[in-house]
């Protein structure tokens, strides 16, 4: 019967000795797609209720930038 502590140590050392898996530079594409689609859906759902306020805010912002 093996000592539990030596088994744990063996497992840790074996994991440390394995080469590191190369990183996937794409990231979590399905997650970002879901966030983007959900954000677009929220904006589309709220737009009929806040369209006038958004247009007024944008007009004020653009006029303050122009001069």
What report would you give on this structure?
It is a single chain. The protein is an all-alpha fold. It has helices at residues 4-17, 29-66. It is elongated.
Task: Compose a concise summary of this entry.
The protein is mainly alpha-helical. It is built from two helices and no strands.
Compile the SSE list and pairings.
Elements: H1 4-17, H2 29-66
Overall strand count: 0
Please give the share of residues in helix: over 70%
Q: What overall form do the CA principal axes indicate?
A: elongated
Low-confidence stretches: none
Following the backbone from N to C, one meets helices and strands in this order, namely HH
Structural class: mainly alpha
Biggest beta sheet summary: none
Alpha plus pi helix count:
2
What is the first-to-last residue Cα distance?
A: 82 Å
Rg over C-alpha atoms, rounded to the nearest angstrom: 27 Å
Query: Which percent band covers the strand fraction?
Result: under 5%
